[in-house]
Amino acid sequence: MLTAIFSSIGACIDKVGVGSVWPFAYVFVFFVMMVVLYSAYILATRGGRAIGREWQANRGNVLLGGLSGTSYVLTLLAMATSAVSYVISARQVSVVVGTVLGVWLLKERYGGIRIISSLLICAGVVMIGLV
Q1: What is the pTM assigned to this prediction?
Q2: Rounded distance, CA 64 to CA 68, Å?
């Protein structure tokens, strides 16, 4: 429940942000701040070599992390043109996609509860779209 509350608060902040500035500028500032603050924390707690070691060990993962920025930009673009409640509800389909990828790529079990939950999420998004 706390996750839903904080996610909703974050979505409201994002809606105000993209209502004030261009979504790409909003994301750029957000990610620059995140990199600067996180890097400062790592430098203060682990020293300068930690960032270099992380880059050497996980360069591909670091670069792939940029895909989350793409997802975030698409969400913000949708928020700029639609009601935040619609966008956040539709975004929950990612739970279904993640579950399907877990079954397909990671060979996780897909029990009855997951199937029912996935169907409910999809039905909810369809109903929101129809209203």
Answers
A1: 0.66
A2: 8
